[in-house]
Amino acid sequence: MPLSLLVQALGPEVEDVQAIFRSVARKTPAMQTKLDKCLNKWNQLWSSSHVYIERLKCVEIVLTGLEEATTVVSEFELKLASYEELPSNVEALQVVSFMNTSWQTTLSSMMIITMIVVHYHHRHHHHQLYWWDGLWTVL
User: Fold this and answer.
1) What is the CATH number of the domain that holds 130?
2) Whether the Cβ atoms of residue 23 and residue 35 lie closer than 8 Å to each other
3) Domain of 101?
4) I need a surface site. Which of 29, 47, 65, 138 has the fewest CB within 10 A?
5) What is the mean pLDDT of each run of 10 residues along the chain (139 residues)?
6) pTM value?
7) Do 127 and 138 contact (CB within 8 A), yes or no?
8) DSSP letters for 89-133
9) End-to-end CA distance of the chain
């Protein structure tokens, strides 16, 4: 069962605990302290699970981008492998050079778009992004 569903399933139980506490006629400071600790832990768990879910969405976006980039690179490799020799005339070399430049531009664009999507996704969810060891980290 996904984490988000597990956390959601516990929500009614937490509400029941709060309702039971409200119905207790003689509340002691110790009982209030225990309830406060329980609710603080619940809020931490809820917040952590949402950050975890957002991170998973980010990973999914990056993996999709990597799959697309891998496909493009594979296509480029096949095209490059089809050249047994580079052409000897200038015009044909310019065509090959243009194709290589086009491939580089395509790959760079894909990387930039993926980074923009990841950045937007996290800004939209009010998290800050930090670049760490080559991976986006949410703190």
Assistant:
1) 1.20.58.60
2) no
3) 3-138
4) 29
5) 71 86 89 90 85 81 81 81 78 83 80 73 54 42
6) 0.49
7) yes
8) SHHHHHHHHHHHHHHHHHHHHHHHHHHHHHHHHHHHTT--EEEET
9) 26
